């Protein structure tokens, strides 16, 4: 009887080992798939340069080079956003041969909805231009958040920072006053520099998100 019990216990332990081994293999496969879809098209230097552009843009506006109206402020920063987008697109074009087509498609698909929504809100809120910078910042943060599964883990904090900063700017703009240029300058300057620091970190399996 004791021998039978010992044999049964040994069989149970062997099955537990098999299950744990199978789970580990599944985890390894999941990590490999995640690494294959991890997007490396955003590089630290171009992202940091966007932050520098934001600081320069805020400095130029604070010196009175832009008209002192809410509409001028909003469209000025839209132009800076287009310039920064061009920097990112140019860098990805230069490195396109080293990027898997599938990961580029994934990254673009994650950002497109936020871009379309941002453009639509620009039209809808044209008569409340003071609200646009905060709203656009929120939408941009949501776009970064949508891309989070394919980027380093620290990007989550950057996305939430943009969303919260955008909400704060939008609430502050309800008074109808022209926003300070440093609201946008500091938000995107700090946000992009932190994002660049996150992109410099090596990718680890423990950053894989389902």
How would you describe this structure to a colleague?
With 210 residues, this protein is mainly alpha-helical. Helices cover 75% and strands 0% of the residues. The protein contains seven helices and no strands. It has helices at residues 2-37, 44-62, 70-94, 101-124, 132-146, 155-172, 181-200. It starts with a helix and ends in a 10-residue tail after the last helix.
List the helices and strands and how they pair.
Layout: H1 2-37, H2 44-62, H3 70-94, H4 101-124, H5 132-146, H6 155-172, H7 181-200
Helix pairs in contact: 2-3, 2-7, 4-5, 5-6, 6-7
Mean pLDDT level: 77
Order of helices and strands: HHHHHHH
- The share of residues in helices is over 70%
Tell me the count of domains.
1
Label the overall shape.
Answer: globular
* Alpha-carbon distance between the two ends: 47 Å
Beta fraction: under 5%
**Quantity of strands, as a count:** 0
Number of helices: 7
Cα-atom Rg, whole angstroms?
24 Å
Main beta-sheet strand count, sense and barrel state: none
Structural class: mainly alpha
List unreliable stretches of 5+ residues: 27-36, 204-210
């Amino acid at each position: 009887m004791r021998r039978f019990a010992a044999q049964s216990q040994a069989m149970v332990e062997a099955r537990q080992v098999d299950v744990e081994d199978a789970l580990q293999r599944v985890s390894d496969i999941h990590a490999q798939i995640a690494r294959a879809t991890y997007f490396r098209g955003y590089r630290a230097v171009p992202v940091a340069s966007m932050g520098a552009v934001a600081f320069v843009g805020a400095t130029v506006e604070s010196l009175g080079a832009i008209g002192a109206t809410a509409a001028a402020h909003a469209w000025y920063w839209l132009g800076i956003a287009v310039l920064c987008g061009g920097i990112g697109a140019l860098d990805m074009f230069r490195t396109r041969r080293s990027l898997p087509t599938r990961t580029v498609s994934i990254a673009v698909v994650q950002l497109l909805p936020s871009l379309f929504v941002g453009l639509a809100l620009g039209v809808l809120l044209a008569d409340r231009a003071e609200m646009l910078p905060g709203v656009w910042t929120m939408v941009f943060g949501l776009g970064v958040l949508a891309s989070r599964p394919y980027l380093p883990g620290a990007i989550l904090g950057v996305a939430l920072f943009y969303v919260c900063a955008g909400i704060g700017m939008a609430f502050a703009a309800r008074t109808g006053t022209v926003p300070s240029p440093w609201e946008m300058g500091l938000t995107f300057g700090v946000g992009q520099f932190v994002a660049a620091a996150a992109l410099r970190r090596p990718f680890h399996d423990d950053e894989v998100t389902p």
